Amino acid sequence: MQTSALPDLAHTATKPVHWLATAAAMAGVVALAGLLQPRAATATATATAPEKRTTTPVAAPDPATVDFPLECGGAGTTVAKQAPGDLDGDGRPETVAVVHCDAGSGTPPSGIYVLTQRSGAAPRVVATLVDPADRKTVGDFAVREGRISATLLGYSSLEVPRCCPDQEEQASWRWKGSAFVRTSGDLARSV
């Protein structure tokens, strides 16, 4: 093993106090975000002629224009797969994207993200269905009739080579009320 000529860096030896400080800072940001909400809208009904609804199709959000919540160390991200669909029944399509870091080689873990876009606004991530921290890669993937389905590939232990996942799991999600709910795939099976 070759030793480094550089001095030890403080950030390479995290301690529990560092994690507690990070958690406290994140809790503060979340609390502040909860306090900074727009004022409640007030509207009154007036008798006007009914609006004509346009039937111009609305384009699904483009994942190429989104910053995904991935820690890639400057390597960039790759949108490996994407599929549009109206997942929440509001008449506007969302995009589901399978994204991973540009690793150059190997099999980096994937994330599955749901994107939405309001009229005139930039697309944004509204849900993370699979977090890359779960160390899963995505095989088959589809969006049909408001349901997202994916085959998740993983590893049973650290001894399994990262090239060759030995577990497979079928998962699907559906919009229910105000969140995406996983509706199947709790059982893993060996490949």
Give a written overview of the molecule.
The chain is mainly beta. Helix content is 10%, strand content 34%. The chain contains one helix and nine strands. Strands 5, 6, 7, 8 and 9 form a five-stranded antiparallel beta sheet that branches. Strands 1-2-3-4 form a four-stranded antiparallel beta sheet, with no helix packed on it. The longest helix is centred in the N-terminal third of the chain and has 20 residues, at 16-35. The protein is globular. It starts with 15 loop residues before the first helix and ends with a strand. Residues 41-49 and 187-191 have low confidence and may be disordered.
What is the fold's blueprint, element by element?
Blueprint: H1 16-35, E1 77-85, E2 94-101, E3 110-116, E4 124-130, E5 137-144, E6 147-154, E7 167-176, E8 179-184, E9 189-190
Antiparallel strand pairs: 1-2, 2-3, 3-4, 5-6, 6-7, 7-8, 7-9
Core attributes:
10% helix, 191 residues, four-stranded antiparallel β-sheet, mainly beta, disordered C terminus
In short:
The protein has one helix at residues 16-35, and strands at residues 77-85, 94-101, 110-116, 124-130, 137-144, 147-154, 167-176, 179-184, 189-190. With 191 residues, it is mostly beta strands.
Return the average pLDDT rounded to an integer.
Answer: 79
Number of strands: 9
Using only C-alpha atoms, the radius of gyration works out to: 21 Å
- End-to-end Cα distance, whole Å, is 36 Å
Low-confidence stretches: 41-49, 187-191
Q: How many helices in DSSP terms?
A: 1
Major sheet summary line: 5 strands, antiparallel
What structural class do you assign from the helix and strand content? mainly beta
Strand residue content: 25-35%
Query: How much helix, percentage-wise, in residues?
Result: 10-25%
H-E string? HEEEEEEEEE
Shape: globular
